[in-house]
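pinned: reference chain
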Amino acid sequence: MASVRLEGVRKIYEGGVVGVHRIDLEVKDKEFVVLVGPSGCGKSTTLRMVAGLEEVSEGKIFIGDQQVNDVPPKDRDIAMVFQNYALYPHMTVFENMAFGLKLRKFPRQEIQSRVSEAASILGIEELLARKPKALSGGQRQRVAVGRAIVRKPKVFLFDEPLSNLDAKLRVQMRTEISKLHQRLETTMIYVTHDQTEAMTMGDKIVVMKQGHVQQIDTPLELYNRPANKFVAGFIGSPAMNFVEGTIAGTTHQAFVSGDESLRFRLAKKSPRSLRSARGKRVTLGIRPEHIQLKEGRRSVSQAVKVRVGVEVVEPMGNELYVYFTLRQGGQQYVARVTSESEPPIGKPLDVWFDLSRAHFFDAATEAKIS
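pinned: its C-alpha cells
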C-alpha cells in the first residue's frame, strides 16, 4: 500500500477558469480520507487528478515515493469506483470482476482465487453467475467494489459511489465500505457531497468550497472547532443556526442581534479579540442541540433565556426538531431536543441558548474568532 501526497495542485480549464485552487494534502498509508463539499467545489476533479483522468495544471502528485503527474492511469496502481456502476450487461458478475485481470493476462487460477476472495469479502458468492440486470442496486454496487478489490491496488478511489442508492441502502453500504477498509487495511480516498457519510466514514475529512480547501481535520475536530462559518454550517445535521449581530457596550461588552431580538453580555472567558471589538459585526453560531427547552434544560455554565414563537415541530422518534423565530416574521432557527415534551405550535415558548457551546465568526471574513 502507499501514501498519496498533493503539493500545490491546481486545475485550470480553458479560458482561465480555476476548478481547483492550490491544494496541499497528505493521505497517509492505510488512511481513509473523505473529500466533501457542495456540487462544483472541486472534490471530484481533485480525485480524478489523483487517478490520472484529469491533467494537473500546476503542482505535483505523489503515490508512494513516485511522482505520477505524467504516469498513465493504468500504471498508477489505483482502482476507482464510480457513481455509475459501469458493469458490462452481457457479462456475468464473475466475468465483470475478472475482466481487468484478464486484460492484464493474469493466470486463470490467480483470477479464480482473487474473484472468489473478493466475493467472499463482499458476501456475493451466490451472485457470481448472474448478469447485472438480475441484481439490485446494492448488489451492483458490491460488484463494482469487488472489481476494484481484485486488482489489489495501492490506493482505492471512490467517486460518490452511494448517491444512486436509496437512503436505507446508503446507510448499509457505507458501513460495508468502512468494514472493508478495516479488513483490507489499504489507503482510500472517498468523495461525497453528503456530510453524514463524511463524518461516519473518514479518518480525516477535507472540506472544500469553490475549489478551495476550507479545513482538513478529524470529524470531531471539524464539528467542535470549525475554522470558519462555511465549515460550521456544512458539518452537522440539522445545520448550525447563525445570528448576525454587533458587539456593543463600553464597560461590559454584549452581543446584540441585528433585529435586537437577542441580547446578552459576553462572558469573561470569551476571546479577548471579541470582547475588545466594540462596534464589530460578528455572527453567532449555535448548534440545534445546544438550544434547550426550559422544561428539560440541563445545568449549563452559561445560558440565556429567549422567548420564541414555535412554528413547526418535526418528530424524529427519539427527538424533536423544533423550528422557531425570535421575532414574528423573522429568521427561522431550529432546536434539537428530546421527545419527552412536545411544545405547542403557534404559542410563545422560552428556550435556553447554551452560550458556553456557541461560536463567533467575523462577519466580514467569516473566519472563526478564537
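why pinned: The chain is about 25% helix and 35% strand. The longest helix spans residues 167-184.
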